[in-house]
Amino acid sequence: MSEEKDLSVGFMGCGKMASALMQGLVNKKLVNDPSSISCSDVYKPSVEEAAKKGYSATDSNEEVCKAAKDVVLIAVKPNVVKDVCVDIRKVDSDALIISIAAGITLESLESFLPERRIVRVMPNTPCLVGEAASGYAMGKLCNGKDEEMVEKLLRSVGVAKKIKEILLNAVTGLSGSGPAYVYQFIEALADGGVRSGLPRDVAMEL
Questions:
Q1: How many CB atoms lie within 10 A of CB 174?
Q2: Is 12 helix (H, G, I), strand (E, B) or coil?
Q3: Among 8, 120, 131, 145, which one is least packed by beta carbons within 10 Å?
Q4: How far apart are CA 22 and CA 159, in angstroms?
Q5: Closest CA to 39 of 64, 62, 71
Q6: In the chain, where are the structural domains located?
Q7: What are 62-78's pLDDT values in tens digits?
Q8: Is residue 192 scored above 50 in pLDDT?
Q9: What pLDDT, in 10s, does the model give residues 25-68?
Q10: Phi, psi of 156 (to 5 degrees)
Q11: Which CB contacts under 8 angstroms, 24+ apart, belong to 194-197?
Q12: What is the architecture, at CATH level 2, of domain 9-165?
């Protein structure tokens, strides 16, 4: 039986969340050859770090769009999403667009990229350790295969739930911001252990 072909995925942005997703694809064997993942960033150290891991890293968004045949994932700050979409429009491609940019609605994304299939995702920081809880909303032009693709990608780093876009704000408050409160609670418990005489490293581990 022939091996399943590697997904061809491109990332606009090589930050922590994008890096975690890239590593998840490799860990779950959705991509066997890291060079099948292309990524771009304006921050040179991020590009260099991605290249060290074997990804096809560049400072050109257009190069990523040309290389990524299946999915282009927008993982940049919200204030530069529109500019990134300008670069995406320059390349003739049928790749699914997935955005993890906070606060940028499907309506806005679809106005920036008319005629493209777009998915909006709200991941969270446990993505960095493969324990993400992500909510996603499908754009109006998406189909069943697109949903399967999103599920496959997001489940490489945790769990994923399809929801109505209007509920993504609730997801942001629950799973997006929620872990920070849990971390604070854990740190407070450790502080109590330290005040009772435990070494900091022991208190944190316990």
A1: 15
A2: strand
A3: 145
A4: 16
A5: 64
A6: 9-165, 176-205
A7: 999 999 999 999 999 99
A8: yes
A9: 888 888 889 999 999 999 999 999 999 999 999 999 999 999 99
A10: -75, -15
A11: none
A12: 3-Layer(aba) Sandwich (3.40)
Exposure of 157 in the CB half-sphere (CA atoms within 13 A): 26
Exposure string over 69-102, b if 16+ CB within 10 A, otherwise e: ebbbbbbbeeeebeebbebbbebebebbbbbbbe
Q: Which pLDDT belongs to residue 89?
A: 96
For the full predicted model, state whether its pTM sits above 0.85. yes
Contact 136, 100 (CB under 8 A): no
Mean pLDDT over the full length of the chain: 91
Report strand pairing: 132-138 vs 118-122. Answer: antiparallel
Phi, psi dihedrals of residue 64, rounded to the nearest 5°: -65, -45
pLDDT in tens, 117-133: 999 999 887 887 888 88
The residue among 126, 129, 72 whose CA lies nearest residue 101 is 72
Give the phi and the psi of residue 83 in degrees, each rounded to 5: -65, -40
